[in-house]
Every structure is written in structure tokens, then in C-alpha cells.
Amino acid sequence: MTVPFPLLVAAILLCAPRVLPIRRHTPDPCDRTILPPHRTLRSDQMTVLINGYSESRIPLLTSIAAAYSASPSVAAVLVLWGNPSTPAETLTQLSRNLSGSDAPVSVIRQKSASLNSRFLPRQSIRTRAVLICDDDVEIDSRSVEFAFRVWRANRDRLVGFFARSHDVDLSRRAWIYTVQPDKYSILLTKFMIAKTDYLYEYSCGGGDHMGEARGVVEEMRNCEDILMNFVAAEGAGAGPVLVGSERARDWGDARNEQGRKEVREAGLSSRREDHRKRRGECIREFHRILGKMPLRYSYGKVVNSVGEQGLCEKGGKLVFCDHQVSN
């Protein structure tokens, strides 16, 4: 008997196995079982986490990532890309451009533009220290090495080159965000070395209170660095360590008089005219939510070399006395 063709096709379709769509499983970053055991993490090098967002900064980011990769203190560089609208081809090309670097460089597309994502624990981090930095700050290699040596002597504290402070406005009886000439309590994520454990404490610890604090970061699109300083100060029971650099070029600082405007203004954090006021609001909110003020003041700066202090006249100019003036 001949079976009509439509019935034959229907029978084949009914008997054929169903092909289900592939679902990619995203591991829970707070699942400790998927993270490397602490005893296996190396302490002689660090992992660099560069926060990237703007395509206009890719040439600068490429240069910065390559420079960090060349450092003997760096085990790996992770470029954490937070712009969900960037074409995949752009990030693929960025990966190719960085493929010849000394230490391995990986470009990771974040699931969202959340600033909290830069502090997620990651399976690929195999070091006890992470260098958290922005995509618009260039630091000379000697200063990077020096900062890492300082961190190895102060492993519970944050170490970096850019400092700010909290304070109390007595007239309003409120916490504020400021810069003080003689003390500091906050390091910025322009360049911040921290122990890897703090990533877990920030992203997964603290229960509902920390979850609410991270929600403030989401709402303000700012202040993730301040919250990390809260976490580190609580863990260390001490303030951060400010170190001196030989050369720290901040391309993204709005005070730059020259340079490409799109590079200065292309950051992910909200940089409005009331920037300092908003960050003061963050400090007050974190204090209210967490029920404590763990920030601690530090004083002074650690420098790599004392050098000459006296000034001498050479070649018609006042210079440090050990400075050689060419004829």
C-alpha cells in the first residue's frame, strides 16, 4: 500500500527526536566550589582587572593592557567589557590585537553595564591580589612594581595612587566626600590593589545589607569604589595605603585642557557637575544601610626613593642637587 506523502512526512516528524535549544549555564560567581582554592592562589603575581566601556577608548585601553601584561608582577589581564551594545566583532578584534601580549590577556563581555560587575569573583583569577583599574589611566612600570611590593607588605589593606577622604560637615551633621591635604580614607579604582578575597566579600558577603548597598551603586551608577573601601576597611581594621608614582597619566580627568573630549567623557560612572555631592550621598547611604562607619584615616605617602631634597643652582636653574644638567 502506498502511503500519501503528507502522511509520511507527518509520521516522520512525530517519531523524530525533539531538538531542544541549547541553554548556556552561567555559573553562580558566589559558588565557592567553582572558585580556585585559596591555598592554590599565587602571591608572587597579581591579576589585572581593567574596566572597559567606551569604544572610543579602545586604542588607549589596548596600550594600557599591553603595558600591564609586560609587567613581571602580572600573571594575567582581564578586560571586563561593560557596554552591552558593543558589536561582537569589535571585541573579537580587540582580543586579536592583544593576543601577542606577554601575560595572557582576556576580553570578557559582562552580562550587564553594572559597576558592581567589576568586583565579581572569577574562576580565572589565580592570584591572591587583584589590580583593579580604569581604561584611561597609564602608570609607569616601575611604579606598578613598587605598589605591588607595598601591597605584599600590607595584604589586608588597599594600595593605590589616587586618594580621597570622607569627613563630617558639622553644620549639617552629615558625612561628605572630599579631598584633604593631610589625610585620606578612600582609594579610587583608577588604580587599586586589593586582596582577591575582597571580591567575594563585596559581591557575596554581608547578606541583605550589602545587597542593598550594592543597589545604591546601581541606582547612582557610581560609588562602587567607595563601597569597596568600606569592605576593605572593615576587613583590615585600618585605612588604605597611598603610594607615590613616577608617572600617572589620567586621560579621563575632566581637568585635562588638551586631548580628545570623547576620551575624557566616555566613562561608565556618572560624572555630573554635582559629582562630589552625589558621592557624599553614597557615603551617607552606606553608613545608614550597613549601620557602621568602617572607613579609617591614613596619613602620609609611601615613596619608592627618598632622593635628593636640596636645591642647587645649575645652568641658571634651581634643580635638585643630584640632578645632572647637560651642557
TrEMBL record:
Gene3D superfamilies membership = Spore Coat Polysaccharide Biosynthesis Protein SpsA, Chain A
Which intervals carry biased composition (Basic and acidic residues)? 253-273
Native source species: Escallonia rubra
Where in this chain does the record put each Glycosyl transferase domain? Answer: 46-305
Check the record and name the InterPro entries matching this protein. Answer: GT64, GT64_dom, Nucleotide-diphossugar_trans
Identify one Pfam family in the record: Glyco_transf_64
Q: What is this protein called?
A: Glycosyl transferase 64 domain-containing protein
Taxonomic path: Eukaryota, Viridiplantae, Streptophyta, Embryophyta, Tracheophyta
> According to the UniProt entry, where is the signal peptide?
1-21
One example of the protein's molecular function in GO is: glycosyltransferase activity
Asked if the Swiss-Prot or TrEMBL record annotates the protein with the keyword Hydrolase, the reply is: no
> What does UniProt give as GO cellular component?
membrane
Region feature Disordered, mapped onto this chain: 253-274
Q: Which UniProt keywords apply?
A: Disulfide bond, Signal, Transferase
Q: Which domain of life is it from?
A: Eukaryota
Q: Which family does it belong to?
A: Belongs to the glycosyltransferase 64 family.
